[in-house]
């Protein structure tokens, strides 16, 4: 009887396999679809959660989008609305990690992830309902899920332009409904977070639940404000997102502006600094686009014919308040930074010592296992050893015993690392906002030094002039200059392995500060830089060890020469080129490093700005560039710059003796085929930008014409 049942069951299994899904959806084990998808869609919540945790682990140690099939991502996407909170949280974490780990080799189809915004919006709505109905302790899981959903939505709109386009109702009712519901939803979360921050500052005493509760609300405030900042600051949107929303939902838009204004200028210490800065960035992004905030008032005045009275608009006061917050964040707190660096170094050394002890313990255990010594023999050997110290004395001293409440030093180090990153995050974000503001300034309506503005013009000018005036009034350009020295000091920490993170992050800050300074030099001619700025930039380039910082500083020096000229120098001497010569010849030639290229460019700018320089100076210049190309690893970006600089200097037939004696023309004839070959190789690389290829091709074409010109001249 049992044998007949088994045969019947086998026959049914074969018939079921024949009636399954198509062959392309069948795994080698015979199941329909990927096995992980079946587990994610399983009826048991524990099975679903285990499968999602396994996927999250895989995603953390791989390039997420490259290793996940489309059906797997669809199953994870559907799990966002799972009734089990742990499953929903794991699903959101998987999608966020997948988006963050995208690169050119593992970039998924944007149409796959564009629809995630709808589910994230629905999950945020359900979280808001549950948080309102539960006490603080019971609402902690829902707050955690809401913060993760806001993070995922923010990363999604930052990395996927199609997701952002869903909020611009060009056609269709669905897009308009999503936009009209999404912005008030995010604004509501930000408003609640601000209310919680104000309430926590007034309360006395904290518990573990209240601490975790406040941490969740701080995270929610940061990500909610960042969503507005990221979406409204998107250049591709061109203001259509804000304009259409304000036109169709004026009341919701004005309420959101008020929430962001409250987040930006509030003096509540419980509001995180990144939240305030993201709110500032969002409000200033609104100012870039010409929308009407009140009757007859234009927030942005890029149109020169728009005139408004000072009493009929609120943007001058708002701009001043936002600029004040931005200026406060452009500070380097030396005492706090020094304490954090010491804490980070101590934690790293303790972690290193603990790791060495663990390795020693592992080797001892492995040695004992290889000996395979019996327990009785171990006991006899221990009895034969002299007992010099009493057992009670050993117990009193605690020798041979590990503390019960000992800390994991690795965890302590990563906590110190997170504290350091949190400390510099405010300055990093403030520099990014400043770079965005200063790069967009000065396009049309800056007041030059020789221009005198009337009272009527100064009271009814465009936002660009108001922005420039506010930057100068709050001393932002000088503060950027003041940041160079302390940041350079901290990049020197790279010699210590424990402080490599400090050097890397400070190099990034140094690069951003130099970028902002370059924007100010180029776009605000009314700002008078300090006399020592050029010397300070040289000193910073010599001292800093972070490659990113050196690149930013050299780019700033190029902008300085192009916009302001070489400071206080009547005649050019060979010693003036030694700094640039050492920068060019003493540098590694890597394709990603632009320092040698900028140094070559600076050398050309110096000689072109001083047409009467001596033959000795010209010879130093020519020999430096010729020696640079001796290196076989010279990249296309550097070789193209060398050719362009030679053509700029010798295009006017200056110093023909130096040109002929050093055989610069022969160098051109050898370098043009080499540059074309490098361009051909670079064109097959996906990392090469098309605009760079066009610049290099133009340099090769101009160099060939230059050779013909010189031959004809001879």
TrEMBL record:
Domain of life of the native organism: Eukaryota
GO MF annotation: an example: unfolded protein binding
SUPFAM superfamilies: ARM repeat
Biased composition (Basic residues): 1-11
Any single Pfam family the record assigns to this protein: TPR_SYO1
Domain SYO1-like TPR repeats intervals: 468-711
One GO biological process term: ribosomal large subunit biogenesis
Region (Disordered): 1-34, 382-402
Family designation: Belongs to the nuclear import and ribosome assembly adapter family.
Entries under PANTHER family matching the protein: HEAT REPEAT-CONTAINING PROTEIN 3 (PTHR13347:SF1)
Protein name, entry field: SYO1-like TPR repeats domain-containing protein
Provenance organism: Phaeodactylum tricornutum (strain CCAP 1055/1)
């Amino acid at each position: 009887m049992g044998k007949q049942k088994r045969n019947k069951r086998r026959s049914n299994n074969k018939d079921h396999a024949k009636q399954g899904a198509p062959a392309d959806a069948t795994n080698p084990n015979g199941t329909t679809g990927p096995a992980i998808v079946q587990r994610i869609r399983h009826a048991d919540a524990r099975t679903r959660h285990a499968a999602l945790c396994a996927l999250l682990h895989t995603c953390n140690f791989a390039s997420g989008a490259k290793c996940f099939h489309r059906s797997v991502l669809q199953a994870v996407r559907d799990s966002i609305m799972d009734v089990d909170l742990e499953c929903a949280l794991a699903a959101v974490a998987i999608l966020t990690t997948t988006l963050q780990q995208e690169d050119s080799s593992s970039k998924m189809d944007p149409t796959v992830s564009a629809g995630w915004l709808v589910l994230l919006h629905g999950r945020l709505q359900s979280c808001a309902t549950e948080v309102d109905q539960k006490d603080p302790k019971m609402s902690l899981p829902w707050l955690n899920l809401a913060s993760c959903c806001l993070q995922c939505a923010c990363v999604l709109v930052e990395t996927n332009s199609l997701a952002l386009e869903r909020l611009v109702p060009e056609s269709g009712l669905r897009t308009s409904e999503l936009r009209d519901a999404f912005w008030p939803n995010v604004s509501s979360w930000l408003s609640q977070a601000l209310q919680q921050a104000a309430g926590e500052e007034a309360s006395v005493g904290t518990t573990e639940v209240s601490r975790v509760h406040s941490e969740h609300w701080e995270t929610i405030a940061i990500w909610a404000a960042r969503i507005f900042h990221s979406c409204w600051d998107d250049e591709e949107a061109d203001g259509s997102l804000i304009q259409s929303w304000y036109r169709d939902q004026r009341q919701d838009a004005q309420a959101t502006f008020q929430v962001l204004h409250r987040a930006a200028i509030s003096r509540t210490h419980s509001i995180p600094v990144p939240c305030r800065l993201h709110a500032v960035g969002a409000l200033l992004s609104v100012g870039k686009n010409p929308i009407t905030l009140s009757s007859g008032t234009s927030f942005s005045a890029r149109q020169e014919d728009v005139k408004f009275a000072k009493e009929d608009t609120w943007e001058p006061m708002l701009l001043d308040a936002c600029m004040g917050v931005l200026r406060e964040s452009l500070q380097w707190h030396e005492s706090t930074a020094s304490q954090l660096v010491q804490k980070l170094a101590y934690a790293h050394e303790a972690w290193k010592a603990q790791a060495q002890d663990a390795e020693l313990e592992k080797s001892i255990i492995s040695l004992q296992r290889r000996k395979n010594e019996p327990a009785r023999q171990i006991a006899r050997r221990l009895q034969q050893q002299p007992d010099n110290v009493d057992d009670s004395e050993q117990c009193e001293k605690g020798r041979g015993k590990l503390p019960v409440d000992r800390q994991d030093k690795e965890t302590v180090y990563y906590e110190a690392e997170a504290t350091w990153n949190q400390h510099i995050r405010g300055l990093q974000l403030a520099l990014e906002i400043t770079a965005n503001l200063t790069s967009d300034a000065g396009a049309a309506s800056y007041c030059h030094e020789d221009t005198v503005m009337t009272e009527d013009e100064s009271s009814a000018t465009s936002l660009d002039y108001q922005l420039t005036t506010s930057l100068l009034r709050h001393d932002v350009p000088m503060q950027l200059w003041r940041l160079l020295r302390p940041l350079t000091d901290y990049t020197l920490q790279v010699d210590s392995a424990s402080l490599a993170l400090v050097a890397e992050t400070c190099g990034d800050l140094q690069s951003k500060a130099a970028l902002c300074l370059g924007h100010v030099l180029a776009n605000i001619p009314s700002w008078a830089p300090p006399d020592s700025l050029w010397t300070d930039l040289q000193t910073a380039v010599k001292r800093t060890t972070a490659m990113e910082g050196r690149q930013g500083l050299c780019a700033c020096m190029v902008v300085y020469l192009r916009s302001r000229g070489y400071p206080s120098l009547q005649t050019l001497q060979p010693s003036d080129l030694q700094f640039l010569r050492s920068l060019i010849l003493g540098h590694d030639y890597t394709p990603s490093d632009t320092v040698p290229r900028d140094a070559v460019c600076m050398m050309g700018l110096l000689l072109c700005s001083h047409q009467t320089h001596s033959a000795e100076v010209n010879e130093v210049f020519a020999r430096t560039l010729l020696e640079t190309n001796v290196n076989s690893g010279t990249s296309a970006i550097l070789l193209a710059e060398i050719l362009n600089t030679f053509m700029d200097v010798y295009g006017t037939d200056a110093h023909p003796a130096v040109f002929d004696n050093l055989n610069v023309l022969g160098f051109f004839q050898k370098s043009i085929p080499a540059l074309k070959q490098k361009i051909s190789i670079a064109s097959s690389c996906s990392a090469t930008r098309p605009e760079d290829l066009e610049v290099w091709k133009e340099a090769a074409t101009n160099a060939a014409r230059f050779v013909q010109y010189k031959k004809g001249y001879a």
